[in-house]
Design a protein that fits this description.
The complex is a heterotrimer of chains A (324), B (322) and C (322).
Chain A lengths: L1 H7 L6 H24 L4 H36 L5 H5 L13 H32 L5 H13 L4 H13 L9 H26 L2 H9 L4 H30 L2 H5 L20 H10 L3 H32 L4
Chain B lengths: L6 H4 L1 H14 L28 H4 L10 E12 L2 E12 L3 E5 L6 H6 L11 E9 L2 E2 L7 H7 E4 L10 H11 L6 H11 L3 H4 L12 H13 L5 E5 L7 H14 L4 E5 L3 H7 L2 E10 L2 E11 H6 L4 H7 L5
Parallel strand pairs in B: 2-10, 3-8, 3-9, 6-7, 7-8
Antiparallel strand pairs in B: 1-2, 1-4, 4-5, 9-10
Helix pairs in contact in B: 2-11, 6-7, 6-9, 7-9, 9-10
Chain C lengths: L29 H38 L2 H6 L15 H32 L2 H14 L4 H19 L11 H25 L3 H9 L4 H12 L1 H17 L2 H6 L18 H8 L9 H35 L1
Helix pairs in contact in C: 1-12, 3-6, 3-9, 4-6, 5-6, 6-9, 7-8, 9-12, 11-12
The chains are: A mainly alpha (324), B alpha/beta (322), C mainly alpha (322).
Organism (chain C): Streptomyces calidiresistens
Pfam family, one (chain C): BPD_transp_1
Protein name (chain C): Phosphate transport system permease protein
Chain lengths: 324, 322, 322
């Protein structure tokens, strides 16, 4: 009874429906199992069972093989061009042997730096508001929630259109610069970061909040000093996964001016810029074989970086997953 | 109620214990509940049938020397349209241990949580009536719930240390109050006060969650008293602990009485008998399928456990109830 | 202690023995309000983004429909906005998108679901501990990488495996569909695996206790119980496939809108049209410029419907099990 009261703070689900749904499932389960009881178990049965697990394994095997094939293929095909020029040389249309991704890599670093600076405060801030401050009874808070969930599924190219209309031109009028790319990508990954941060904040048990509030801490003190530190690994995971997605994203940047051949090192607020995935795309579209190899070498670099980042994020989450 | 059946037998033993523990701090009330005249009645309003004043019921007593910390006047708490506990009127005395007992769902925890405005955190909760704290309405317009919780601390059912070091757990409260100096001393004092210092003094930097359940609960008590509250509310503080840890906490609670006013909710009647000076018995009234808690009887613990005035209390104490 | 605090009725008298702390806030917590305001602003930003998306899509779209009728746009079968006498029938590129989505789902649903069932029900704990994170890491493979893989490896490979098909040029919409399928396999696998694992163990054990075998439990108990979560996974994957740009741009090509349904040839999709046309500078206000936004609006609407459906399913699933 007492715990029930404590949890009431965070629990407002329709309990009735839950029970009926569960009952329905339980009945279905019992019926299915019961059928098993009354049909005689034959050798045929055992064969189908074994066959079934073989099919399952085949499915998983296909998934893993196909996906790791991408990495293997990139390694084999891209290996010959994995040299210093790839990183240090700028782009060239004439001499593929001496061309590289230098400006694109610098562009990516700028753009992603901007993305991080934007998504950490905005994403975590929105997550804190929705989890800790928002009164879910209010329609506008529920609307914000639904809106974020929907934004998470809006195609990235639509964000490109938004960036083109509002950031490059229109209200922001930044022009085709790295900053515009940062903002566009930040808006794109923000919903993901918010959703992940909310999960992490929600995972902090309400007993921690109650303990802190009962000591006379204000809601913000409670959030800042107790909830956020406890949720930090989960939030960090969300941020890292968001950043990883931003690194690999090319489509929206096509619209906000990540142009192909940037000969000089870019700067944040002025001049043309490019990023790694867009540069790869452009090399891949050239007719010469040498450019294709270079594009694949670029893919290899990106894969390695992203695999490392993602592995770290997932390791982090799994490590801190169950603390309570 | 699993613990009920032992109650009548053990009722005798704990009463003595309770009186002993009371003695150094508060020599008067429990020992001489009987004699005296009902002098204190003058200022009270007696319009509620549930407005029970122990000494008066027994023909008066030296009530006035017991300072009132809380005066509850027809307090009701509702969640949405459901009234969880209704029309409670009772006084809580300074440096006393007041136990709230009763069957599940009788609203005793709910009532406890409205004494430091923790119920404010439940959006649908509403408190009616008056909770007067030293003459000031706790729900008055100028009262700040955050400030209230600094003065009236709380310990919860399940130990809930913060996932940080033992030191930081204790220092959290003082720090939120803006205290920066002598933090080491404050932490040590609070841990000593919670009888935990000797066990943790060499590992103040280890995580609070690494302690045993009983130690965690004492850490939570240390955390609560580090801000020097006047009142400590305890919501079934031992329900998640084993018997040995429970005994330690009970000893501690009795010690804390020297400095703090304690209100404790417990399912365990022997515990109420062992530690408390005053006991309030709550019951559930069911009407139209809705369960509402109500205060049945409030009196000296000794009286409640030996000669309760109400039949329902007697049934509950002797295990013939829910 | 026995020193009386009779004066306690008036709150101001608190100073006489132990100074009592006031219950009102010491100072108004403006900082707290500012912080809350900032946080609310962060959350509201998302609404601003949606509004900005709608505005940025609608304004040029309205301009577009001043020149091209809605009926012509939605039912026309010729798509050549770039030409002097442009045709604005969107059907060919919608069909291109749908072709990719259908093929991608045909590839990804069986592989993804089989993997999910294996991981949730069959895989030994250790295998799962390795494979599940591996799948999640693979989920992060950038679309450009998959696109290049499709263009340079899968497309030539397909020509060798199916030599009887009418391969022409470097591009193929069918191969693009397969490559998008690769992209969404991990998504389907991990979301539906989560769904199956959150089916309560009791349901499984109950069935096992009745003598059901593993296959029966997986297919007749767990799968139906998790069905709304599984459908949500598929719907999410569908939304992802509709909006995928880089893979189709690379593998299906940016040009050649057609209604031929020839999987061996390249074909334009909605996203590929936007991505291919809008690279960097195009003259604002022209019909071609506006076409990008008209197609964008249609794309946004399609994914909106799919997303809202997925969100509903996920909510329903969570209500049941979490």
């Amino acid at each position: 009874m007492t715990t029930g009261e404590t949890q009431k703070i965070r629990e407002d689900r329709p309990r009735e429906r839950r029970t009926t749904e569960r009952t329905r499932l339980a009945v279905a389960g019992a019926r299915a199992a019961g059928q098993g009881l009354y049909t005689p178990r034959s050798a045929k049965h055992r064969v189908t069972n074994t066959l079934f697990s073989a099919v399952l394994f085949l499915g998983l095997g296909t998934a893993l093989v196909a996906l790791t094939a991408i990495i293997g293929w990139a390694l084999v095909e891209g290996w010959p061009r994995l040299d210093a020029n790839l990183f240090l040389a700028g782009p060239s249309t004439i001499n593929p042997e001496e061309a590289g991704f230098r400006t694109a890599i610098i562009g990516t670093v700028y753009v992603i730096g901007g993305v991080i600076a934007l998504i950490v405060p905005l994403g975590v801030g929105a997550a804190i508001y929705l989890e800790e401050f928002a009164d879910r009874e209010r329609w506008y808070n529920r609307f914000i929630e639904l809106n974020i969930q929907n934004l998470a599924g809006v195609p990235s190219i639509v964000f490109g259109i938004l960036g083109l209309a509002f950031i490059v031109r229109g209200l922001g009028n930044f022009g085709f610069v790295a900053a515009a790319g940062s903002m566009t990508l930040a808006l794109l990954v923000l919903p993901t970061v918010i959703l992940a941060s909310r999960e992490a904040i929600r995972a902090v048990p309400s007993s921690v909040r109650n303990g802190s509030l009962a000591l006379g801490a204000t809601l913000w003190q409670t959030v800042w000093r107790n909830v956020l530190p406890a949720a930090a690994p989960g939030i960090l995971t969300g941020v890292i996964l968001g950043v990883a997605r931003a690194i690999g994203e090319a489509a929206p940047l096509l619209l906000v001016g990540a142009v192909t051949f940037v000969v000089y090192d870019p700067s944040f607020f002025e001049g043309g810029y490019s990023v790694l995935p867009v540069q790869i795309y452009n090399y891949a579209k050239r007719p010469q074989e040498e450019f294709h190899v270079m594009a694949i070498a670029g893919v290899l670099v990106m894969l390695v970086v992203l695999m490392l980042i993602n592995s770290f994020a997932i390791w982090l989450r799994n490590r801190y997953e169950k603390k309570w | 109620m699993t613990t009920d059946k032992d109650a009548p037998i053990s009722g005798e033993m704990p009463r003595n214990e309770g009186t002993d523990a009371t003695a150094p701090a508060d020599p008067g009330p429990d020992a001489d509940g009987g004699p005296g005249t009902g002098g204190a009645a003058g200022t009270e309003n007696l319009d509620s049938p549930l407005h029970l004043r122990p000494a008066e019921l027994r023909g008066g007593g030296e009530v006035e020397h017991r300072d009132k910390v809380f005066e509850l006047r027809k307090v009701s708490v509702s969640y949405g349209s459901h009234r969880a506990v209704g029309d409670v009127s009772m006084d809580v005395f300074q440096r006393n241990i007041t136990a709230l007992i009763g069957p599940s769902g009788c609203g005793k925890s709910t009532l406890l949580r409205c004494l430091n405005r923790m119920n404010d955190l439940v959006p649908s909760a509403r408190v009616d009536g008056e909770v007067i704290y030293h003459g000031e309405n706790l729900y008055g317009p100028r009262v700040d719930p955050v400030q209230v919780r600094k003065v009236i601390g709380m310990v919860f059912q399940k130990p809930n240390p913060f996932p940080k070091s033992i030191y930081d757990n204790v220092a959290f409260g003082p720090r939120t109050m803006g205290i920066k100096q002598n933090m080491d001393d404050i932490v040590e004092e609070a841990l000593r006060g919670a009888a935990l210092w000797d066990e943790v003094k060499d590992k103040l930097t280890s995580n609070g969650l690494s302690l045993s359940g009983g130690q965690q609960q004492r850490l939570c008590i240390a955390r609560a008293i580090a801000v020097k509250p006047e009142v400590v509310l305890m919501d079934e503080p031992c329900s998640a602990l084993d018997p040995i840890a429970t005994l330690k906490i009970e000893d501690l609670i009795r010690q804390l009485k020297d400095e703090y006013t304690i209100v404790i909710v417990t399912h365990n009647m022997q515990q109420a008998a062992r530690v408390s000076d005053m006991t309030a018995f709550f019951s559930v009234r069911t009407s139209e399928g809705k369960r509402t808690g109500e205060l049945v009887e409030y009196d000296d613990t000794e009286k409640i456990f030996s000669t309760p005035a109400d039949r329902r209390t007697e049934d509950y104490i002797s295990g013939r109830f829910g | 202690m026995t020193a009386s605090q009779r004066g306690s009725v008036s709150p101001e008298a608190g100073a006489e023995e132990t100074p009592r702390r006031p219950l009102g806030a010491a100072r108004p917590r403006h900082g707290e309000k500012v912080v809350k305001g900032f946080l609310a602003l962060c959350a509201a930003l998302s609404v601003g983004v949606t509004i900005a998306i709608v505005v940025s899509l609608l304004t040029p779209t309205i301009g577009f429909f001043r020149e091209v009728s809605v009926v012509e746009f939605l039912t026309g079968t010729q798509w050549s906005p770039g030409f002097a006498r442009g045709e604005f029938g969107v059907l060919p590129i919608v069909v291109g998108t749908l072709t990719v989505v259908v093929i991608a789902l045909l590839v990804a649903i069986p592989i993804g679901l089989l993997s999910a069932i294996y991981l949730a029900e069959y895989a030994p704990r250790r295998v799962r501990a390795v494979i599940k994170p591996a799948l999640e890491v693979l989920e992060g493979i950038p679309t450009v990488a998959i696109g290049l893989f499709g263009l340079f490896l899968l497309r030539p490979l397909a020509e060798q495996i199916f030599p009887f098909m009418n391969w022409r040029g470097d591009f193929s919409i069918g191969v693009a569909g397969v490559a998008v399928g690769l992209l969404i396999v991990p998504l389907i696998a991990s979301v539906s695996e989560d769904a199956m694992r959150s089916v309560p163990g009791g349901l499984r054990e109950g069935a096992y206790a009745l003598g059901a075998n593993k296959m029966r439990v997986s297919l007749r108990v767990v799968f139906p119980a998790a069905i709304s979560g599984i459908v949500a996974a598929v719907v999410l994957a569908m939304s992802r496939a509709i909006g995928e740009t880089m893979i189709v741009l690379l593998v299906a090509g940016a040009g050649n809108p057609n209604l031929s349904f020839d999987l061996a040839r390249g074909a334009q999709t909605m996203t590929a049209y936007i991505g291919g046309t809008a690279t960097g500078d195009i003259a604002t206000g022209t019909t071609v410029y506006n076409t990008i936004f008209a197609v964008g609006s249609l794309l946004f609407l399609m994914t909106l419907v799919v997303n809202l459906f997925a969100i509903r399913l996920v909510r329903r699933f969570r209500e049941v099990y979490e």
